[in-house]
Amino acid sequence: MLLSTFQQDFLEAGCDEAGRGCLAGPVFAAAVIFPPDYCNPLLNDSKQLSEKKRMALRPIIEKEALDFAVAMVSAEEIDRINILNASFLAMHRALDQLKQKTAYIIIDGNRFKPYKEIPYQCIVKGDGKYLSIAAASILAKTYRDEYMDALAPEFPKYDWLSNKGYPTIKHRNAVLTYGSTPHHRKTFKVTEPQLKLF
């Protein structure tokens, strides 16, 4: 069972991003604030859930959260400031949109760029430990997938409907064969060994 909050003293927002390892498309991030005593046994890290379950949970999260926001940073911006900074910027943009005044932030991962003067805690695998981060991972992932699905018909050779911009063998081969689109990250190399094969 995931925990509702990391600390009890302040109103807390959970943040996560989606699309960091993609060759194409923006990186998305979400911020979610739940009531301190919130409970939902179905919530989990988005990577552990099927697409159908993620889409079923999204309206529940949006209805039951005290506040939530989703933001993105474009491929062009990623090329300009690098993917790590772009991930932080996407989270900052999501936090900017919250109407509730959050006083503490928990972030999935081990690095973060401070947001205003608000205290924060990075939590490795936080999307599998805290409800608000899990919810943020689901929102970021589902909104990003929808964005890539909407682009896909214009660029059918790249198979974005199934790979969402991630570096599958088919996607890499399409880039090598047909070149990149305006939505591709020019600073990401298709042949780099650290890009995992999916």
UniProtKB/TrEMBL annotation:
Subcellular location(s) per record: Cytoplasm
Keyword entries, A-Z: Cytoplasm, Endonuclease, Hydrolase, Manganese, Metal-binding, Nuclease
GO MF, one annotated term: manganese ion binding
S-adenosyl-L-methionine found in the keyword field: no
Residues given in the record as a divalent metal cation binding sites: 16-17, 108
The protein's Enzyme Commission number: 3.1.26.4
Cofactor(s) listed: Mn(2+); Mg(2+)
Biological process according to GO: DNA replication, removal of RNA primer; mismatch repair
Record carries keyword rRNA-binding: no
Reaction equation(s) it catalyzes: Endonucleolytic cleavage to 5'-phosphomonoester
Textual note on the cofactor: Manganese or magnesium. Binds 1 divalent metal ion per monomer in the absence of substrate. May bind a second metal ion after substrate binding.
GO CC field: cytoplasm; ribonuclease H2 complex
Family matches, as PANTHER family: RIBONUCLEASE H2 SUBUNIT A (PTHR10954), RIBONUCLEASE HII (PTHR10954:SF18)
Function summary: Endonuclease that specifically degrades the RNA of RNA-DNA hybrids.
Similarity comment text for this entry: Belongs to the RNase HII family.
Protein name, UniProt field: Ribonuclease HII
